[in-house]
User: Fold this.
Amino acid sequence: MVRARFTIVAVAGWFGIVAGGGCGPTEQEKFRVLSQEINRLKVETIELEEQLAGRDARIESLTGQIRNLQTEGRLPPSPLFEIEKVVILDISDGVNLDDRPGDDGVAVYFRPVDADGDVLKVGGPITIKLLDHAEPGQTRTVGFALLTDADFIRKAWYGRFWTNHYKVEVPFTAGFEPKPGQEIDIWMEFVDLATGRPFTATKTIAVEAIRSDADGGG
Assistant:
C-alpha cells in the first residue's frame, strides 16, 4: 500500500509538472500577440501624427494665401461671422448696488449680432456712458465704464441657458441721484478685436429715484 501511494503521488506530481509546463507556451503566445498589437498601435499613432502635422501645415498655407489675396484686393473679406451691429437689450435697467431703496446704477445688457441677427461671441473693448438730459439744453455724463482687460471682458459674457449676452453694471457718478420718473440714456461703443471696427448703440431707460429713510417709511 505504501508503494502504491508513492506511485500515485509520483505520477500525479509528474502530470502536474507536464500540465504546468504546458501553460508556458500559452502565456508566451499571449505576450507575443499583445506585443504585436502594441507595435501596430505605435505605427498607427505615428502615421496619425504625421497626417495631423500635414493638415495643420495645409491649413496654415491656405490661411496665408487668403490673407495675401485679401491684402492684394483680389479677394473681399468674408461677411461670415462679422459683426453687423450691437444691440442693447430691453432687459437693461436700473440696478440697486447698495442697501438704499432706489437705483444707483444701470445694468447694461447687449449683444453683438451679424447681418442675419444671430448672436456672435466676440471680444473687444467696451465703453459705456450714462447720460442725463434732465436739464434743458444740457447733457452730462452720470456714469462711465471702460473694459479693456481680456479677463474682465470674458467675465462680462454670459452664455449659459441660452443667454448669450454681455452684462456690465455701471454705477452712477458720486453725488448723482436720479429724480422720480427720470430717464437715462445709455450710450455704448464696442470695438471688434478681430477687425478693429467700432460699433455704437444707444437706448433710453427709466430709473427709480433713491428714497430716503423718511420717504421709505411713508
